[in-house]
Every structure is written in C-alpha cells, then in structure tokens.
Amino acid sequence: MNSTAVSRAPITTGDSEVRLTEAKGRLPGWWKMPAALTFFALVSLLVFGIGGVRGQDSHFTIAHDSMFTSMGIPTEITVPSVPTAIVLSMVLLALAGFAWFMQATNRTWPRFAKPALQVGFGVLFAVAFLVWTVAAQSLNIEFLLKATLGLAVPLVFGALSGVLSERAGVINIAIEGQLLFGAFGAAVVGSMTGSPWIGMLAAPLVALVMGALLALFAVGYHVQQIIVGVVLNVLAVGLTSFFYGAVLKPQAERYNVPLRLPELRIPVLADIPLIGPMLFSQNILVYLMWVIVAVCTVALFRTRWGLRVRSVGEHPQAADTVGINVARTRWSNVLLGSAIAGLGGATLTVGTNVAFTQEISAGKGYIALAAMILGRYHPVGAAMAALFFAFATALQQNLGILSSSPLPAGVEKFTVPSEFLNMLPYIVTLLAVAGFVGRVRVPAADGKPYIK
Amino acid sequence: MKLELQGITKRFGSFTANDSIDLVVEPGEIHSLLGENGAGKSTLMNVLYGLYQPDGGRILLDGKPVSFSGPGDAMAAGIGMVHQHFMLVPVFTVAENVALGHEPTKGPMLDMATARAKVREISERFGFDINPDSVVEDLPVGAQQRVEIIKALSRRAEVLVLDEPTAVLTPQETDELMQIMKQLRDEGTSIVFITHKLREVRAVADRITVIRRGRIVGTADPSAEQSELANLMVGRSVALQFDKEEAPTGETAVSVRDLTVVDDAGLRTVDNVSFDVREGEILGIAGVQGNGQTELTEAIMGLQKNVWGSIRLGSTELVGRSTKQVLDAGVGFVPEDRTHDALISSFSVAENLVLDQHNRRPFGSALSLRLPRIRKHAQEQVEEFDIRTSGTDSPVGSLSGGNQQKVVMSRALSRDLSLFIAAQPTRGVDVGSIEFLHRRIIAARSEGTPVIIVSTELDEISQLSDRIAVMYRGRILGIVPGDESREVLGLMMAGYTAEAARAEVASGSTLANEELAAEGDIA
C-alpha cells in the first residue's frame, strides 16, 4: 500500500501486538495446578512420611543377574522407609512451591517445563508411595516396569485411535468396541491358522468393521457421535459374546487357542538394570507401539496430511473452501484409528498368551479415551498418560501379591485397597478436565457433523 | 481475467435465490454487487466458487465455459474468495493457513520455510504488515482479513471476490481495505465487491450491479446519486433519514458505575465503565464488534459470571441478580444474535412471543400455560408489529429475518418497561423493516422509557441516539452528543478519546476520503 494514501491513526499502528487488558495479570483458575500439587505433596508427607511404618526398611529389586550386576551394580537396594518418604515429600513440596511462584507471579513457563514438572512430580510421588507401601517387604521394580509397559500397549493403541479420529473432528467413544473386535479377530484367525503372527495381522482388519460403522453413521449420516460410539460398544460386546458362546467356547481347540507372540529379546540392552527388560525384552507389538507413536506425531504435526487433518478437526468449512474433502479425511482417519486400535486388541489375546473371553477388553477402551484427553489429543501425551494408567494397574496387581505375603513379626501396616488404584485413571482424568493439570484444548469441530 | 456469468439460476426448494443472472466482470475492474441482505448476492458468489451447483446458466472465464464441482476447481481456475465469515483456522499460524490446501513440501515433510517466505513476499508487496508466524486467533479482524487476501493471492487469484468485507472493520480499516482493492485492481486483478453499503460502493467501484430478490434490477455508475442507488436496491423510494421528534428527558433512571466484566480467559472485556441513562433518552453504544458491547448488555441482564461494580435501575441494584429477577425489574432485552439467543426456531411464533413471561400471569398459571390467552396475545402482537407470518402457530424459524426480529422486538416491548436494551436491533433486516423498528424504538423513548441501543452501524447509532458512548477494548472512550460527526465517531471507534478525535479531525489530515465519511449510508 502506498503510504501516502492513508495516514494511519497512531493508536492503531501495531494493533496486532495489543490484547485486551488482563485482570490482575492472572488467569482465573491459575491456582488450580499448584493447589493440586500441594495437596498431593501434603498427602505424601502426612501419610507416606509421618504416617509410615517406623523403624522399617523398604527393599527394591532393581536388576537381575547379568554382566551389569557382575560389574558391581547391586541387584537390590534397601532404604529406611520413613526418612526416605519424608525427604521425597519435601522435594514434592518444593516443586509445588515453585509452581505457586510461577503461577502467582504470572511468569511464562519455558516450553515443556510445565509437563516436565508434572511428570517429575508424578514419578516422585509414586516412589514415595512405593517406599511407604513396601515397608518391611520387598518389591521387584524391574518386573513392575515391564508389566506396566505390557499393560500400556492396548491403552496406547486405543488412545492413538482416539487422537487420529478426534483430530479430524469425529468423537471416538467406540475405542472399547475396536479393541474388542481386534482381540476377537486376532484370537480366531490366529487359532484357525495356528499362527499368532497372522492373528496379529488380522486384528486391524477385523477392527476396521467398527471404524467403518462409526464413520458411516457419524460422517455419512451425521448421527450424534457420542451416541453412535456407545451403541457400537454395546454392539461389539453383544456380537463377540454371541460368537464366543456359539462357536469359540464349544470348539475352543479349533477357534480359540491361547497363543503368544514370541518375546523378542535384544541382547545386552535387555540386561540394563531397571529399564532393560521393560524396553528391550518384549513382543513385536510393544516395539511397533513406539514406532506408531513416533510416526503419528511426525505425520500429524510435520506433514501436509497432518495439517489437513487438523484443519478438518478445527474448521471443516475452511478446509472445504481450500479444496480439502472433509468427509473423505474423516472417513480415512476413523478407519486408520480403528485399525490401530485393532492392534491394541491383538495385545489382549495373542500378545499375552490368553484365549478370547467375553468382554476381554474390560473397559480398557474407556481408559484409553481418558488417556487421550489427559494427553491433550497429542500422540506423545496420550502415550505418557497411558503409561501412567498402566503403572497404576501394574501396581495394583503387584500390591495384591505383596499384601498376601507375610510381614515380619510385630509389624502392622495399612494396605491400600486395590479398588482405589483401579479408580485412579478416572479421578486423574476428571482433575485434568477440570483444569488442575493445565488447560485441555479440544479440536474446535470435534463431534460436530459437517453439513454443507 | 474476464469473468462472465450467463443466466445463472439457483433454487432452494421452491425459493429462487438467483433468477437467470447475467454479469460481466472485466479484467482490472472493481465490480460492485449491491443488494440488501438476502437479495441473493452471496448465493451467486457461492455458485461461482463451486460451493453450490447452479440449476441453470454457465460460467465463462476469458470466454471459455468452465464448471466447478468444488472450491478446489474454482481456485485452480484463478478465482479467490474472501468470505464474510473468515475461513481461517484460528489455532494455525498465518503461514499454515495460507499454505493449507496447496502446501509446499520437502520430501514427505511440510516445507514451512517456503510457506513463510511466500507470506512475507505478498505481505511486503502490498504493505500488509503480517508476520507469517502469528497465530491467527491472536490477530485483530482487520489483519485476519488481510490474511484471507494473502491466501487468495498466493493461489494466483485473478478474480477476487470480497463478500461483505467491511462488516467487521472500523471506518479506518475500511479505508485501508479500499486502498488495497484499488492497488490490486491496478495490478490487473478483477474484483467483485459484494456489499449493501452505498457509501463504500460509490467510493471504490468502477461499475455497479444492483440485485434485488435474486434478479438484476439495474446497473449504475459510481457517480449515481446515493438515493437513486437506494431506490434501485429496495425497489421503492426510501427515506434515508427521518426526523425524530425531541422528547423531554427526565430523571436519571439507570446508573452504571465502575462496571468490570472478566471473561474465562481472564481478560477484562468490560473495563471500569460508568454511564447514566435518563428517562426518555436513547443512549447509543457504538464500537466495532467485539469491544465489550455484548458483555456489557449481558452483564446488565445477569448473563455474565464475573461482574464487579454497580448497575442501579431506580433504587434496585442489578449486579448479582439472576436474569429472571432482572426481567422482573422491568428490563426488556433484544439480544444481538436473534437465532442463537432470542428465538427457539422450532417453537411457534405465539410461543416465542411469551418466552420471557410464560411462567406468570396472564400467560401461565401454577400448573399450565394458558393457551387461549397466549394465542390472543400473539394475534395482537402480529397485528401491531405487522409480522408477516402464515399464522401464529408457524414455527418462528420459517419467518424471514426481518419478521423474526419483529417477533423479538415485540416480545421485549409488549410489557411496561423500566429500561429497554436492544443490541443490533436491525442486523440483517431489510430496509423497510429497519424504518419500522427504528420508529418503535423512538416511540418507546418518547413514552419516557430509558433506552440503550448497541450497534456497530454508525448510521443507526447517529440516527437514533440522543447521546453516544463509544466503546473500545472494553472501555468507554467518551460520551458525545447524538449529532457528533462521523469522522470523530470513526476515530473514537479506533481508540481515540473524544478530545483527541476532534483535534485530529480539526487538523484535517486523517481520512482518505472526507467526502465519503461525511455522507450518510442507509443500512
């Protein structure tokens, strides 16, 4: 524009930099996250620290016999229960104090600092909890971590299914049904062919049926997406239960044999203390999970495909006016998502040496949904959240073993009912949605049918 | 590129939105499509852009017939469109929005460096001052519109359609846009400029085509008289101005003090606002959309959460009251968005007319609605407000925009009021109804009711108001008399205080086209 034609009013120059005045400089609800951290830090101090079993030690197995232990790394560490928990609680309080300081003075958090603080806090809180609950007993941390990852796999695949479809604007409540179909398909095809590998490959194809139904009703017929999802879950339970009762159970040796994908152990790396077995001694599905999380992240945020998918989930009309086919994008993302969830279903049967049983998914689809929300519709976030939820489940299983093992004479202690650990994912998700773990930004057109 | 539309017809059911329309846009001309809301301008452009398929007629580009099955085809053929509601993804950056749909790639990855360079290049060529890495939702609307233009230009658009581009702009931003349009024209772009504002057409168009009820009713030169264009557009002669009688103002009836409203993101949408309204007075609240007017009216109505300060109506304090209590105190309210906030479109006209009074006498008793009374009331109101409907039982959604607005107005005005608030009382309403609605508002004032009018249309404000308060970023920059000049109001809408604006106008350097600013405008 030739500058002589219009003389700009001085106050409008650089308009784009000026926002409305902020009230007191803080956002409403700025106190929520520090308050939540303080609460958990105090719980840790009062229950795990001061309320701990005095004069006892907690024993943790952190390595198995290998070249590393022969190099001097201990297989077991022992810490005094109460003092350790108190020290950890002090660190937690310090982190909470830091969060108060940052939020109250309305400072900008460096990139990744907030999630890093939250993850760090969570890990320390978990360690304090373990120190308290293992007092006078012993726990194998290596096993716990390996079990965590195994349990996380179906959740991660399920959550990715949600991320892919909701980023394109289709609410995916049907993850549960997709997992169930995947598990069913893997078991049946695997049994018929006698190969867990073929079963694994069949799982995404069978789960596609669920994805196609979801896309047909949600995208094709503009039906309320939450209702479609819930109905599909009920349908999946009904169908698989019927076939289980009518075919799988009577002819189990032909259609429903427990199968197991072999564990692929990577030499040397699998012997690393603490994390070796978790990361490097797993079946193909676990390795595949890491690859798919990475591919999804790059594809969604760094490629043309991802930009288009996200535009469809945020503002489908804008996407339409630049020539992007909204319906096709949503169809393909729902299908892709359901196929990935199918792999998660395969984990439940051929991944764990278990035959198919009724409702084998047992609500994991809903926990995956929670992981997706807690992970803020981001593949990496969803995977972290799924790992956290899986840790809670693994802990619950291990504590079950712990509580049945005898205590030294004269020691009495309180054990956490396992139901509370089962509830944990849902409680954390509610806190997240209520803004205690930072703001969750939903794709703007999520759940809204696009009608021209 | 020369664009020709020949005999374009588009029907929606039994309704003909475009009736064999012929239009020729020469290369390097600004062709203005003038018409009232609902005349069929946007439909025509959506046909051109491939969003609708025409039921008859054809489109020619440089003499060759083309057919578009979607916007992608239209863009590929060199047609760009800046929609009335921006087609930008709010959470994406400028570069991402501009690249979307024809993204540069490097191997499998997006090549954002190229995308940014493209934005920078176009932005510099036209002096747009747009940073490719800004997130779109953080930009003011004027800048978002420039992003839309960059988007069209980056696809080498040779025909650029601007659909009501000035609706969301301040007068100053409008002037800037007109400069941009002229510059684009001089570089050879054909521009179709859709509007219902006569002033703008005359300032920028090379040729004018007037559309009414889906047909072309005439063409005109930009030198044509304003009243001539208005008559063509409306189909009968209209009074562009009408005199409102003076009315004696009484006691201070409403007193707002230090009112502050904070939104969920912690921003002060209304910032320490104070004003009075007297009995028999219309206070106009002017300002560009989104400067806190909506929140101000909603705060009075008890529809906002975080409100500090005081709103006294007579001796009653309204802050902290529920909406029902505010209504009971005698406040009549016309919300700015009738389809979202004022009417339930599947409910009948009669039901909509008693929505705010359904639970009390005479329309409701303890257990049930008194249907005969509601029906009678509806018939009276339909008569009095000349609401064109096939019956009081028809769903309100089947009425035209102007008649829907009459339903909302008549509901608010059908009882004794201690305060009447109308936000955008004539938005999307045809010119005939505007006149009627304005007369009703003035009648209410003349009976002694204090009235608050919120409007983004400067002409409406000037015509109705006894005093004008200008809002900018949540603050009231000044309260000026109702006959304050357009230039001063325009500057205040852009953030000047009353004194600064007057000084600026007195020095005579601000506006590109003073003649343009001084003239009236009908819609």
Automatic annotation (TrEMBL), chain A:
It comes from the Bacteria. This is Simple sugar transport system permease protein. Its main location: membrane. GO terms for cellular component: plasma membrane. It is found in: Cell membrane. The chain crosses the membrane at residues 29-50, 85-104, 116-137, 143-163, 170-191, 197-219, 226-247, 284-301, 423-442. Signal peptide: none annotated. It holds the Pfam family BPD_transp_2. Keywords: Cell membrane, Membrane, Sugar transport, Transmembrane, Transmembrane helix, Transport. The keyword Transmembrane applies. It is a multi-pass membrane protein. PANTHER family: GUANOSINE ABC TRANSPORTER PERMEASE PROTEIN NUPQ, SUGAR ABC TRANSPORTER INTEGRAL MEMBRANE PROTEIN-RELATED. The keyword tRNA-binding does not apply. GO terms for molecular function: transmembrane transporter activity.
Automatic annotation (TrEMBL), chain B:
The keyword Nucleotide-binding applies. PROSITE patterns: ABC_TRANSPORTER_1, ABC_TRANSPORTER_2. Keywords: ATP-binding, Cell membrane, Membrane, Nucleotide-binding, Repeat, Sugar transport, Translocase, Transport. One of its GO terms (molecular function) is ATP hydrolysis activity. Residues 3-238, 254-498 form the ABC transporter domain. GO terms for cellular component: plasma membrane. Pfam families: ABC_tran (PF00005). The lineage of its organism: Bacteria, Bacillati, Actinomycetota, Actinomycetes, Micrococcales. It is found in: Cell membrane. This is Simple sugar transport system ATP-binding protein. PANTHER family: CARBOHYDRATE TRANSPORT ATP-BINDING PROTEIN MG119-RELATED (PTHR43790), GUANOSINE IMPORT ATP-BINDING PROTEIN NUPO (PTHR43790:SF4). CDD domains: ABC_Carb_Monos_I, ABC_Carb_Monos_II. It is a peripheral membrane protein.
